[in-house]
Amino acid sequence: MMRYEKEILNALLDKYERSKSFTGDNKKEQSFSVKLSKLFPNYGDESEYELLTSLNEAVEELESAGSVFAKRKKNGLIDAVSLNTDSLEAAYKYISRTPKSEVNDRLLALLDKYSKSNPLLSQFCETQKERIALNKRAEYFDGDLVEYEMVLKAVSNIFGVEEETFIRDYSVKVFGDSKAFESVIGKVRRLLLQYGEFPDEESVFEDLNIIKNPGHVFIKGCAVIQIGGQTIDLSRLSGDIAVSSALLPGISGIKVTGSRVVTIENLTTFNTFSEDGAFVIYLGGYHNEHRRKFIKQIYSDNPNAEYYHFGDIDAGGFYILLHLREKTGVHFEAYRMGIPELIRYSSYTKKLTENDTKRLKNLLDSEFAETVRYMLEHNCKLEQEAVDIG
C-alpha cells in the first residue's frame, strides 16, 4: 500500500516545488492539495472496493504521520488531500524523496565544478544556474545526478581530442569503462549541437575526432598526390581511391591538374559525379581535424584552383558549407545549390520540417537569403541525389 502514499505525497510535493512558496517569492500563504478522484480516477467506483479501501487507509496513514490534511464528503469518501507545509521534512523522509532544494544545491555544485572546462560548457553551466534560480529544470537533467555529472564530464573533455578516437576508447579515457559513454551519448550530442556550432546532429562527434569506425576520404579526378614516397596520378585511374584518416598525414604533396576542386556531401553523388577538370573529394559525411588539414594542404599547394562544395539544398547543406569554410579558411563556393535546381527538380523536392524552417530562417541574412526565401515560400528542400549531374 506504500505506493499510494508515495503517489499522493509526490503529487503534493511536486506542486509545492513548482510554487512561489518554494522559491520564497510568495506574497501570501499558499496551500497545496489534490483531488483524490483526479489522482485515481476509479476512486469512488463501487466496483473498485479494494482500491477505495486501500486509498482511504493510505490517506489515514499520511494523516497520522502529520504529512497531510484530508477533506471528506458526507458519504465518507475523501474529497481532497492537502500538504502539511509545517511538516515538509517529515513528508520527504516518509517517502525517501530528496528535497528539490538539496538536489539544486548538488546541481549547482556540479555546474560550478565543470563551468570553466571550456567556453561551450561555461555557457551551458551559466544558463543552467539561471534556470535553477528561476525554479526551472536544468536542461538534460532527469533527476539522476550521477548521470548528469557523466554528461558534464564528457563535454568537459571532448574538445581535447586531437586524433581520431573510437567512441569506446574515449569512454575508457574519460570514464574508465568502454560502454559508459554510450549511456549518455544522446544527451551529450544534443547539448553540443544546442550550444555549439556544428552543421548537423550526425556530424557532431566526428567533427570532434570521436568516431565509430575508421574514416576515409574518397578522391578521384584531376590530381597527382605524393604519399609514402609514391606518386599517384588519379586522372589515370578509372575510378576513385579511399585514403584512411591514418594515411592522410603521410600525403606530402597534392597537385591539382585540372581547374577546380569539388567537395561532395553525399557518397552516391560522389560516385556518379563526372566533370572534366575537377578534382573531387568525398569527406565521409563530415570533416574532422585530419580532413581539414587535408583540405588546407590542397589549398596551400593549389591556391589558384577554384573551390566548390556540392551538397543538399537544405539548411544542413548550407551549414555544412559554412562550417567547411570556417574550419579550413578556404572560401568554397556553392555548386548547384540554388533556385534553378529547386525549380528544375521540383518533382523531387520534399516539404520542410519544423526544424528545417527554424534553421532556414536563421540564414535569411546570409548569402543564401534568396534561395532560403524561395524554399520557405514554396515549402521545399532538395536532396543532392535528385540533382542530375550527368
Model description:
The protein has 390 residues and is α/β, with parallel strands linked by helices. It folds into three domains: 2-94, Arc Repressor Mutant, subunit A (Orthogonal Bundle); 100-211, no CATH class; 216-386, Dna Topoisomerase Vi A Subunit, Chain: A, domain 2 (3-Layer(aba) Sandwich). It is 44% helix and 15% strand. The chain has 17 helices and 14 strands. Strands 9-6-12-11-13-14 form a six-stranded mixed β-sheet. The protein has a three-stranded antiparallel β-sheet with strand order 1-3-2. Strand 7 and strand 8 form a beta hairpin. Helix 6 runs antiparallel to helix 7 (119-133), helix 6 (100-114) runs parallel beside helix 8 (145-157) and helix 8 packs across helix 10. The chain is elongated.
